[in-house]
Amino acid sequence: MPKLWDETIDAHRRVVREAVLDAAAALVGEHGLTGVTMSQIAKVSGIGRATLYKYFPDIDSIITAWHERQIAAHLRQLAEAGEAASPGDRLETVLRTYAALSRRHHDGNDLAALLHQGEHVIRAQAHLTELITVLVHEAAERGEVRGDVPAAELATYCLHALTAASGMGSQGSVDRLIAVTLAGLHPGHES
Predict the structure, then answer these.
(1) Which residue of 50, 66, 84, 168 is 20 to 30 Å from 76, comparing CA positions?
(2) What pLDDT is stored for residue 113 in this prediction?
(3) pTM of the prediction?
(4) pLDDT digits (tens, 9 = 90+) for 34-59
(5) CA Rg, the chain, in Å?
(6) Which domains does the chain have, with CATH numbers?
(7) Which of 108, 121, 114, 101 is nearest to 162 (CA)?
(8) What pLDDT score does 64 carry?
(9) For 130-148, how does the pLDDT look when each residue is reduced to its tens digit (9 = 90+)?
(10) Tell me: the pLDDT tens digits for 78-127?
(11) How many C-beta neighbours within 10 Å does residue 90 have?
């Protein structure tokens, strides 16, 4: 096949896939994770059901692909947040962004809990832990955060602590959680 044809087919596939995932996102927002059907996705995306089934065998595969896209977007957002001036500032910005994402995307639904057990989530968590570990290490080297605890442990501590933002009702309570987490990183707490 000519290269142009390959690119055209790949571009078409990406457009169809994105349309399906965009439709799924809109429908999940409107009906919740368990209230979405293949027929609804086909209708909202403007893609025939037969074509939809060529791309995705069932609703679970669409929801999983949508969730993978969401997580990838969150990781990009966190990486971009980590572009501040000093390592300490980058760390604080990433932690604040993580807490905001945790709070905004919390869903007590059982399907949401299942989605968060997928292989893509395990990879994303490892990537996120590595990002924060590097930031903690760099900030510790500059004396901006405590250096008496290994960076990987502090990264895990921060992530677990800030995951609690998902259950907090107000921005004020999230802000206090962030302040407490950051205070625990302060170099004055070294033993």
Answers:
(1) 168
(2) 54
(3) 0.70
(4) 888 999 999 999 999 999 999 999 99
(5) 20
(6) 1-57 (1.10.10.60), 59-191 (1.10.357.10)
(7) 101
(8) 83
(9) 989 999 999 999 999 999 9
(10) 777 766 678 888 888 888 888 888 876 554 444 455 555 667 778 888 88
(11) 21
Amino acid at 119: E
Residue 137 to residue 150: CA distance in whole angstroms: 8
CB 120 within 8 A of CB 161: no
The total number of residues shown for the chain amounts to: 191
